[in-house]
Amino acid sequence: MDKLRIVGGQRLQGAVAISGAKNAALPQIAASLLSPEPLELTNLPAVSDVENMLGVIEQHGARVSRSAHAVSIDASAAVSGETSYDTVRKMRATVLVLGPLLARFGQAQVSLPGGCAIGARPVDLHIKALSLLGAEIGIEGGSIVASAPNGLAGARIVLGSPSVGATETAMMAATAARGETEIVNAAREPEVADLAACLSAMGANIEGAGTHRILVQGGTSWRAATHHTIPDRIEAGTYAIAAAITGGQLELTHARLEHMASMVQVLEATGVSVWPGDRGLIVSRDGPLRSVDITTEPYPGFPTDLQAQFMALMCCAPGASLLRETVFENRFMHVPELMRLGANITLQGTSALVRGGTPLRGAQVMATDLRASVSLVLAALVAEGESVVNRVYHLDRGYESLDRKLGMCGANIERIR
Ligand SMILES: CC(=O)N[C@H]1[C@@H](OP(=O)(O)OP(=O)(O)OC[C@H]2O[C@@H](n3ccc(=O)[nH]c3=O)[C@H](O)[C@@H]2O)O[C@H](CO)[C@@H](O)[C@@H]1O
Ligand SMILES: C=C(OP(=O)(O)O)C(=O)O
C-alpha cells in the first residue's frame, strides 16, 4: 500500500492546475447509460473513482475509449443486469447508475451501498424519487430492485432534504420519463448544474438546475454529445488551504471563483487573500492566521468536503474555532489523527472545538476517507519534521497527482510504493 512521506516547513509557491471535478464526472459517466448515442467527456480527472465508474458502465456493456483526461462512451449495446455488491462497496456513487438503467431498460438491480466512514448515507430519497416516477421498487437480498415495465411517468418530486445524489438520480430518470417532472428542494451544487448541462448536450430539456426547483421535460430524443466537465472546486479549495497553511502563494489555474464564494469568504476572514488572475485564482497569505467558526451546509454554504482541510488550517490559527458538521453525522475521523500531530481538538457531538496555534509535530498517521486523508497531508506540510501518511489509496480516489502537484510548488513530499 502506498504511503506519503512529508517533511514540513516549506512555504508553497507556484501554480497548480485544477483538474476536472470528480463529483461532476461520476454522475456524467452514469448518465451515458441513458443514451444509445455516443458521449464524449473531456476534462475528466485521472482519479481512481473515475476509473471505477468507467469499469461499472463497462460491466453494463458500454464501450469506453480512454485518452488523457477524456473518454468516448458508446452505450448503444448496454444492458441492465445487476450492479454487484463488490462494485458498489468500493464506491457509493455507483448507485447513480440506478436511475439511468431503470429509465432506459425498465428494470435495474443495484446492490445497496450501505454506510461508509463519514456516515450511514441512506438512499431512501433516491428510492422515493424513482417510485414517484412510477417505479416498483424494493430491497431484495441486499439489493435495490426496481422495475417500470411500462416506462416512467413525469411527476412532482419534493425532496425532504436537498440531497445531491437524489437530485441527480431524479433528474437523469426524468429525462427518459413521459411528460414533465418537477424536482422541488433540489440540491443546488455546481455538479448538479453541470450534470444538467451534460444531459442537455445529450438532448434533454432541463430548466432550473442550480436552483431549488428543476423542471425536466421527458421523452428525450438522444443525440451524440461532447461535454467538458467543470473544474473541481473541492480540489481548488484544498490547494487554497495548502497556500494558506504554509504562508505561501499559489495560482490555482482553471479554478472558478463563482463556485467557491463561501469558502473564499471564510478564507478571507482567516487572513488569506484570494483574487482572480488571468488563468484562475490566486491565493496568498503573508500575515498571521485568524481563527474562524464554520458550519457546513449544502451549497452555497461551506462544503462538508472541505471541513477536514479547514480543520487542519484552524489547528495553526491562534485562538479557538468551532467547526459544526451538519451534512454528515460522523465526519470527524480525522480528529484523532490530527491530534497525533499535536493538534488540540475537542469533539462535542456534531461540533469540533479547535484550539490552534501550538506547533504541530511530524508523526505516522492514517486516514479512513478521502478528505480526512488530505487534511493530514495539509497538517504535515507545516508540522515540524517528518510525517508519514498511510492508506494513500483514499487520496487517489479523488486527487489527481497530489504528490506531484504539491512537489512542484516546493513541498517536500515523496510517495513510497
Ligand atoms: C459523488 C458525490 O457527488 N459525492 C458528494 C455528494 O454525496 P451524496 O450525493 O451522497 O450526498 P447527499 O447530498 O445525497 O447527502 C447529504 C445528506 O443527505 C443524506 N441522505 C442522502 C440521500 C438519501 O437518499 N437519504 C439521505 O438521508 C445523507 O446521508 C447525508 O447526510 O454530496 C455530498 C454533500 O455535498 C458530498 O459530501 C459528496 O462528496
Ligand atoms: C464524500 C466524498 O465522496 P463520495 O460521495 O463519493 O463518498 C467526497 O468527495 O468527499
What is the gist of this entry?
The protein is of the alpha/beta class.
CATH class of the largest domain, named: Alpha Beta
Number of helices: 14
Low-confidence spans: none
Q: Strands of the largest sheet, in order across it? A: 22-23-1-24
* Bound ligand species: uridine-diphosphate-N-acetylglucosamine, phosphoenolpyruvate
Q: Helices and strands in order, then pairings?
A:
Layout: E1 3-7, E2 13-17, H1 22-31, E3 39-42, H2 48-59, E4 63-67, E5 70-74, E6 82-83, H3 85-90, H4 98-105, E7 107-111, H5 124-132, E8 136-140, E9 143-147, E10 156-158, H6 164-175, E11 180-184, H7 190-201, E12 205-207, E13 213-217, E14 225-228, H8 233-246, E15 249-253, H9 261-269, E16 273-276, E17 280-284, E18 294-295, H10 307-314, E19 319-324, H11 335-340, E20 344-348, E21 351-356, E22 364-366, H12 370-382, E23 386-390, H13 393-398, H14 402-408, E24 412-416
Parallel strand pairs: 2-15, 3-14, 6-7, 10-11, 18-19, 22-23
Antiparallel strand pairs: 1-23, 1-24, 3-5, 4-5, 7-9, 8-9, 11-13, 12-13, 15-17, 16-17, 19-21, 20-21
Helix pairs in contact: 1-2, 1-7, 4-6, 5-6, 6-7, 8-10, 8-12, 10-12
